[in-house]
Prior knowledge:
Blueprint: H1 9-14, H2 17-30, H3 40-62, H4 72-79, H5 81-92, E1 99-101, H6 102-111, H7 118-129, E2 136-138, H8 139-149
Amino acid sequence: MSASFEIPDAAKELVPAEKLAKIVSNFADIDRDGDGRVTLDEYLDHMLAEHRARLLHKFQYLDTDGDGTIAFEEFLTATESSYAVLKKFRECDLDGDGLLDYEEALRAAEILDLPYSSDDIKAALERRADLDRDGKVTYDEYFGLIVRYGFQ
């Protein structure tokens, strides 16, 4: 192992060579000026660069439309999961009565792009979603189905 700093003999003896090589490489990456010592500025620059990459990834996740900004609704959807579910429920509630009949529930399944046939979805709705068997799916029943099956 060649480095611009001295690696203690104890480290060479006690740390497996592969692991030590990785540690040396990481230290050398942080020690930008190669003097064998990491200054506060070098350490902060390195750590902030790693943190910046994670934050950039999170920003890109929140920016669902990819326009380079996070609109309030994108932020709201990411921080309040029930908002997105309720919004989809309302979009499918064509008559605005606060309930989904089977036709509207099937439409919801299509919007959610579920990989099931209409017959499978109707059977699941009858058995699992319409708990009170009134032919309509309430928001609570819909939300329960979403939570159970993870469709959002």
